[in-house]
Amino acid sequence: MTTALDCDVLIAGGGPTGVTLALLLAKAGVTVIVADKAAEIYPLPRAAHLDHETMRILQAAGVADDVARTSRTTGRYDFLTAGGEVLLRFDGSDQIGPGGWPGANMIHQPSVEAALRAELSATSGAVLHTRWEVRSFADDGTGVTATIATPEGEREVRARYLVGADGARSPVREACGIVFDDLGFEEPWLVVDTIVTDPSRLPAANLQICDPARPTTCVLMGQGRHRWEFMLMPGETADEISSDASVERLLEPWNVAGAVTLERRAVYTFQARIAAHWRKGRVLLAGDAAHQTPPFAGQGMCSGLRDAANLAWKLHAVTRGGASDSLLDTYQTERGPNLRATIDMAVMMGRTVCTTDPAAAAIRDAQMLAARAAGQSPDGNLAYPPISDGAILAGTPAAGSYFPQFVADGARIDDILGPGHWLLTQGDLTRGDLARFSAGLTTWFDKTGAPAVLVRPDRFVFGTGDAATLAPAWEALLTG
Description:
alpha+beta; FAD/NAD(P)-binding domain; eight-stranded mixed β-sheet; 13 helices; globular
């Protein structure tokens, strides 16, 4: 048995989740090898959206500005009846959210991945190997030894931990014997991606058309692109609906002939599933390997990046900071409820959209229009629950809540305070480097009523109280 370590963390999968995790780890001094079985980045669009929190994660990874340059924002996400009446409206998504970035950033995934990989290649302590496929692995309790197929033949890589960020069909998850909890949503849809030549003829908002004759999605993508999604109706096949004639017929009501050119068409089955366990010994799962969500809330890639942010600081604390391995048990404890709420929101949206019975759709429309008229519609800005259990100082005000990224004079507080955890007191608000953020920080402290806050590296609040109490409580967490 090989005992020498090749790296601290081996990541199977070089998609956005795996590479973001690698960057966060490497920037904290953790050595990482990423093994991706593909030769290149998948060149066509897939994910469409990143929210303000996940843009903040990409900021920590060093690529948010690059991503922002090719993304677009929109102020509205509307769910409409077949006749155009508003059933649900989520607005203000072009405004700066608590993460310090616009609430909705419509992206071109290959551009995001290219930015991530360019940053990884310039970051010491991490390396990405393409055409490397993890074939098997063994966890001996002190590390994981993986057998990897490479262009030069099989080789072994030994790491302290293995993270399976290898997609919905995750061989790592399968090898661990981890099953999915099925949350009861499964619908096939045709995805049509286009390159825009005349943006003036396209909708400026993201739309869900809740038409029982053909539920349809129409959303912005990254710069110069637009997407439609069409639900398959009973009796339709993937080949039939993907044909040139079918795509032309489906786009005809949008009057975009000559304004767009087809880039991709593919049929996907939208699912809602969560892996029963996200950890088995020294093997952990992240991203689509751990969960899949329907796309209606735009949280697919976002959820994987949140996994990376949560897992990165804990793996750093365990591999470099002397923290107990048990800290990793809080990963699913913390992310699971948030992820389930995210999927519940997406499923609610999906069931709203996917109603194909005309009578049921008429009842839905009447109920939702009445609720909206009465001010009882569940729309507004999307928000998800805080951490309620895990690596927090439970019982202190705001513990487990999301700590905002304050923005002032073109500067963001994360860039001023840097990576790692922060211990902030009300006395810090007059510091030269923090003075510009004093209005936002003062409001936050006044609302909390605490003299100090300790903010975790993933920007969730560990706890509040006296600085003299918070510091040792944090150290106890990391060394206990």
